[in-house]
Predict the 3D structure of the following.
Amino acid sequence: MQLVVDQLETKLGKKEIVKNISLQVNKQKFVGVIGPNGCGKSTLLKSIYKSIPPHNGKVFLGDIDVLNTSQKKISQQLGVVGQFNEMHFDLTVEQMVLLGRTPHKKLLEVDNQEDIDIVEEALSQTNLLDYKNRSYLSLSGGEKQRTILARTIAQQPQFMILDEPTNHLDIRYQLEILQCVKDLKIGVLAALHDLEMAAHYCDYLYAMQNGKVYAAGTPEEVLTPEIIGELYQIKCETYTNPVTKQLGFVYQI
Amino acid sequence: MRTEQVSNARLKQTYYLFAMIFLICAIAITAVYSVSIGQVPIPFQQSMQVVLHTITNGHLGSLEQIESDSYINIIMQVRMPRVLFALLIGMGLALCGVVMQAIVQNPLADPYILGISSGGSLGATFAILVGFGSGTVLAQFGVAFGAFMGAMITSVLVLGISSIGGKVTSIKLVLSGVVIGALCSSLSSLVIFFANDAEGIKSVTFWTMGSLASASWSKLPILTIVVLAGCILFLFQHRVLNTMLLGDESAITLGINLSVFRKLYMIIAALITGTMVAYSGMIGFVGLIIPHICRGLVGSDHTRLMPASLLLGGLFLMWADVLSRILVENVELPIGILTSVIGSPLFIYMIVKRGYNFGG
């Protein structure tokens, strides 16, 4: 599914956080949003999935006019993996993932065998089958985030938004999460803070600064020493990693 | 591995069903036991015959062996309404406890959080000390009315304050509940301070300890309708209640706007609590601990938590009522004291023995 964001503006209180941003994610592309803390990445994503309603602009997901469609309808097509969130009550991993079926259910409908099969499939895609009956709160950070990803997969979305999904995670878990999403072969818009990951996984990048798009293009076009230096206010050199043959970065203040 | 898990899940399901059937049987037996005891002790056998005979309209059980005709009257007119009161109020308290804990995403919540208790107390205090006259029947009605109005007005206020600035979040709800609660408590104290009425102050104290003594058939219909309608409604809301545990951000990505449901559930829970407070005063602790005990037994998934809490809540309050009548001879202890006295050790047992960590 294709995502088109047109001239989006979002205010928090009186302050304008997202200033007239337009972007596009083509079918099955993995598109990244990078930028320093406070540049409006999170707010931009939240505006797209309406957790923070934007003040102006248009968002289209395929044919769906997101801003004028019910949350339920949108959530049948759009899955979101956010940053860590705290919970005070415990559920098992399976119950947690079953909640991903919510958008497809009427208010009084119970889960049937099909839902259970979908959950089983999502658990196996995220390597969580053995954790099915474990309590969610007893899991490690990486396992928790994988559970959330499994829940989002069980939602069977045609498009996924990731808001720094690998924050606080060890390298292995970061790779696992991003690879798993990449393998889904659906459109993805992800805010990422690790530039090497962005270079490796993204087909296209938007660099944000002060609520505006500062640069856009393929990772090779955007991840240049000049743009990164200006974006994050650092000195930066790029090189080709001799082992992975991918883009590598060296930073200095 | 896979088959093992399937059988494990099936085992859990069996265990759950067995536990539910056990609770229902326990409630039935407790009901019969409860109508047997009191100032006129009636043998258990005979109580059972009377109850069976009455509820099956004469198809089961016979009245031939009943020693005294007055037994039937005592059981059906005096004790039965009280047993049903205990069952319904226990269910209602546990129901509102589960719902409130989900609404505010806080394991500390009970039906009386969010100012409902202080509002109810203020209403009752006002009715007793300033009040709606001194005629016994009218006064009784006045206290119930005052308590109900107090509870409803404070909940609406709390909801109003937490709606300021858009979304109703759990933090805003708890904080406005605490603020309004403190305000109502001090107003109650003010009324008591200026009241020159020792008898009245004593009634206020008794009221805050809770009592099922006012139970009667004539009061049952309203309580039954309100509590049962609430139970049926919330039994089918497990999906929304579960997403509430995830918080606003996750719920919205699953297509559910919690702000709307919080308001709705809050109003319904306040209505149920207000009705219960009006009839029985403040019976504390049930709404807090029953959901926790049930979480320890069946988990936090509301599909199972809700039925388990309803049944256990009802059973718990029936036993608290039985004990309040038999512990001290010829004295009826306020039931609110009993619920805390039985509830606390039970809760501590849960934490120590079963390693329960407060739902989280």
